[in-house]
Design a protein that fits this description.
4 domains, Potassium Channel Kv1.1, Chain A, three-stranded antiparallel beta sheet, alpha+beta, five-stranded mixed beta sheet, about 425 residues, disordered N terminus
Length: about 425
């Protein structure tokens, strides 16, 4: 069993405290030879005493780092979410651990390692700074910081595919090829996205366009579960430095994924704060401020014009619950009458179906008569038929409630239809008994 001791390396490179004290790593299984230039020339190494060669165990080292990251990164979650620095240092530490090189190696062996081979395992991105030892070739990068003001569409053309794109919600790092060593991978790391987002990365060169990455993200990755989410291949072989720098652009598009649960608490906070609104929805006794970009994405069946819209027959609470569904993607059954009116107003058929399904499931002897009147008024045939069947089977209990008296006074025709339905139900039951 080989013990990795990088106390000096940690001190030299400023590795965070949570990555310093590492348990012993057993590299007995799935051993891979160290790439040429990575082997330790220390003659006092325990493995060399046993006549063995050093090995590089990529799987165990990454598993060890992931375990430590899940255990200790909670303390630095705010720093990681803001800059991503903790994760990069973590990856650098894992590369240093996997190399089994010690600080006792001579400077001549280090220089020979640099000149002999600068390749790294394909799953480890070259994230070390230029001043690092030759564990990985330096990767130049420039940073573009975008505040996420418009989450519907963001596009950034850049003069070369050498960039790190950062926002408040995600980091996209592309480790690009150089003229001497191309790298055909796109690495995507996500930091607590506010909602499932669809990221599409497109490579454009003159008249040639190719989508190299398209991924629908998961919902709210915490900093402790920060991970590489996916990768895509670029245009091979792309080995010419001239090709990379003549009219080549990368276009990144971020758009909310069309799902009924696409929004999260972060969007709800934006609605509850009622700040930076550019549209309004006026109810009977209150006017709610909204964000047009969210409304247009979620309510695609409605054409928004002007600065606001008025919804008739909906109170303040009904409008609030509906807008919470718009921003948060969920509805718990509150204020179903107002939510139904809003769903009809804005043409949201899936929400309308959800409301009618809830009504039929929630039907009981106390509200059956009222729901029957409502279904008749709104021309909801399925709900009406369900109410007629329910009242026919529970007529004695339904007639004891106040809703029945109101039904008899206001809708005598509906009462006659109810009795006719009950008579037909009895005849069907008798015919079934005779069979």
């Amino acid at each position: 069993m080989t013990t990795y001791n990088n106390a000096n390396n940690d001190k030299e490179y400023g590795c965070p405290q949570q990555f310093k004290e590492k348990p012993e790593v057993n590299c007995e299984e799935d051993l891979k030879p160290i790439p040429k230039g990575f082997q330790d020339n220390n003659n006092n190494n325990n493995n060399n005493k046993r006549g063995r060669t050093n090995h590089y165990c990529e799987r165990d080292c990454e598993r060890d780092c992931e375990r430590d990251c899940e255990r200790d990164c909670e303390r630095d979650c705010e720093h990681v979410e803001r800059t991503g620095e903790g994760y990069y240092e973590h990856r650098q530490h894992s590369i240093r651990k996997g190399s089994t090189s010690t600080t006792s190696s001579t400077s001549s062996s280090s220089s020979s390692s640099t000149s002999s081979d600068t390749s790294i395992p394909p799953s480890i991105p070259p994230s070390l700074p230029p001043s690092s030892p030759p564990y990985a070739p330096p990767a130049p990068s420039s940073t573009y910081i975008w505040p996420l003001k418009n989450p519907h569409t963001l596009t950034s053309p850049t003069p070369s595919p050498t960039f790190t794109l950062s926002t408040h919600t995600f980091n996209l790092i592309y480790y690009p090829p150089t003229s001497s060593q191309p790298s055909p991978k796109v690495y995507v790391f996500l930091l607590s996205p506010p909602a499932p987002l669809k990221l599409t990365l497109t490579l454009i060169h003159k008249n040639l366009t190719r989508k190299i990455f398209s991924q629908i993200t998961g919902n709210l990755l915490t900093s402790s579960s920060l991970k590489m989410y996916g990768y895509g291949d670029t245009l091979p072989p792309l080995t010419s430095g001239y090709f990379w720098n003549s009219g080549l652009r990368l276009s990144l598009k971020i758009s909310p994924h069309p799902s009924p649960h696409c929004c999260t608490k972060d969007y709800l906070k934006g609605f509850e704060s009622q700040t930076s609104t550019d549209y309004y929805i006026k109810c009977l006794d209150y006017t709610w401020g909204c964000h047009s970009i969210i409304l247009k994405f979620r309510l695609k069946g409605y054409e928004f014009e002007g600065e606001g819209v008025e919804v008739e027959g909906v109170g303040k609470e009904g409008g609030r619950v509906f807008l919470e569904w718009v921003y948060g993607g969920r509805w718990g059954g509150e204020e179903w009458r107002g939510v139904y009116e809003c769903a009809r107003k804005f043409g949201v058929e899936d929400l309308r179906w959800e409301v009618t399904s809830f009504i039929m499931k929630d039907l009981n002897v106390d509200n059956a008569a009222d729901v029957l009147v409502w279904a008749e008024k709104k021309s909801e045939v399925q709900v009406k038929e369900w109410c007629l069947e329910f009242i026919s089977c529970n007529s004695s209990k339904v007639m004891e409630g106040l809703g029945w008296r109101k039904l008899v006074e206001e809708k005598p025709d509906l009462v006659a239809e109810l009795f006719a339905n009950a008579t037909g139900a009895r005849k069907r039951m008798r015919s079934n008994d005779n069979l």
